[in-house]
Write a structure and sequence with these properties.
Layout: H1 9-21, H2 24-31, H3 35-49, E1 54-57, E2 60-63, H4 65-94, E3 97-101, H5 103-110, H6 114-120, E4 126-130, E5 144-149, E6 157-163, E7 166-171, H7 172-178, E8 191-194, H8 199-206, E9 217-220, H9 222-230, E10 235-239, H10 244-249, E11 252-257, E12 265-270, H11 277-298
Parallel strand pairs: 3-4, 3-5, 8-9, 8-10
Antiparallel strand pairs: 1-2, 5-12, 6-12, 7-10, 7-11
Helix pairs in contact: 1-2, 1-3, 1-4, 2-3
């Protein structure tokens, strides 16, 4: 379609509204502009088409034969556009909100709080996907991902939700028994690692510790990791926010800790642009829940 050969959409819209109402003033109210602005657009359309479309008939406007024909087709066309957009909006509103997050975040942070979101938003259907796999945010398969790190996902918007640095922890009895003092000492004790992740190996590599032929690693789902750590089955690397209570109580000992100055933590990752209403409600609730969590932990 050669759009350059057509009058501007604003002119066509103004004319269709004025023709339907037979009033520039009523058309202006519908379009939230002045009646003079509507008149100007109609005059511009008549000039573009080089023919009169509307004329004054006493106190009312009337349409010329050409104007009546054009108005009828425009009303039909705009009606089709309106129906198509309305159907798309309705379809989008009915689609479940699809959220991806790590299993650890789902079990330790989200699920203990999700009931409050459900109580506030009973009409929003949630589809939660606890997985360490990276998901398709750009393509629209998921609406939101919640991921641990320092950020830097190209082409996506992100914001820090739950600040937390990275710690290596173990049960008190294991630490006392194994006498762990250096990073190299970690190589001679069993590891516990969340299934599908390799953050700990990469963390050690950045610090000059090369991991080779390490077989006494137990890979397990994130919701089982804390229990295994408490039982002294090995050392593990986790976000500190999930073990803070255990550390304060002395059940777990922090062996090594990432620099607290590094802006690490769980981040919201989403597509740029206007959020659909359901996602906007969910992210607003997440931010509020995160602020309340900080207040509780700081008390």
């Amino acid at each position: 379609m050669d759009w350059s050969a057509l009058p501007s959409l604003s002119c066509l819209k103004a004319f269709e509204s004025a023709a339907r109402h037979r009033s520039y003033t009523a058309a202006g109210r519908e379009m939230n502009v002045s009646h003079a602005a509507v008149l100007q657009q109609v005059r511009r359309l008549e000039s573009c088409l080089d023919m009169p479309l509307m004329q004054r008939d006493g106190s009312r406007l009337s349409l010329t034969q050409e104007g009546a024909a054009l108005a009828a087709r425009l009303s039909e066309g705009f009606g089709i556009v309106h129906d198509a957009v309305s159907a798309l909006i309705a379809q989008e509103a009915d689609r479940p909100l699809r959220i991806s997050m790590t299993p650890s975040f789902a079990v330790r942070w989200l699920m203990p709080r999700i009931a409050s979101f459900r109580a506030e938003n009973p009409d929003i259907e949630l589809m939660l996907n606890p997985s360490v796999d990276l998901v398709d945010i750009k393509g629209g398969t998921f609406d939101l991902a919640i991921r641990f790190g320092t950020g830097g996902w190209p082409g996506l918007d992100e914001e820090l939700l739950v600040p937390s640095n990275f710690v290596v922890v173990a049960a008190r009895e294991l630490v006392d028994r194994e006498k762990i003092a250096t990073l190299e000492d970690l190589m001679r004790v069993p590891w516990l690692q969340e299934l599908g992740t390799d953050e700990f190996i990469r963390w050690l590599g950045v610090r000059g510790v090369k991991v080779e032929n390490k077989h006494d690693i137990t890979h397990l789902p994130g919701h089982m990791l804390l229990d295994a750590l408490r039982d002294g089955q090995g050392i593990g690397s986790v976000a500190r926010v999930f073990v803070e209570e255990e550390v304060r109580a002395g059940r777990l000992v922090v062996l090594f800790e990432e620099d607290p100055a590094v802006p690490t933590g769980y981040r919201l990752v989403y597509r740029p642009g206007v959020m659909r209403p359901a996602l906007k409600s969910f992210t607003s609730w997440l931010r509020r829940a995160a602020r309340e969590d900080v207040e509780v932990r700081s008390a």
